[in-house]
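Morning. Coffee machine broken again, so started the prediction first thing and wrote up yesterday's gels while waiting. Chain of 116 residues, entered below exactly as on the submission form.
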Amino acid sequence: QVRLVESGGGLVQPGGSLRLSCAASGRTSRSYDMDWFRQAPGKEREFVAAISRNDRSTPYADSVKGRFTISRDNAKNTVYLQMNSLEPEDTAVYYCHVRLGRTDYWGQGTQVTVSS
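Came back before lunch.
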């Protein structure tokens, strides 16, 4: 079993930056891929970025390519999402996600609001 706790959200002006963190506990994070998803009001949850267990694969949604960077520190069981050049369209609750077998684990989410 895995427990995920996100942090780092907040209010930022357009063009600003935020760094989200997701701390995993339970099974060691070295053994699984980790993802970030987001959900804006009235919209479905959507994929943002992922990072493989060996850091060799980091796919991104087209909407965040070149602006967001996912990384992980396995010693700290933590995955990060560095978000630069934020836009109002990035406003959403951001969730950390892990899939083990057929079980999905989600964090509680952290709110990101981009507004002037």
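Strands lie at 2-7, 10-12, 18-26, 34-39, 46-51, 68-73, 78-83, 92-100, 103-106, 110-114. Going to sketch it on the whiteboard this afternoon.
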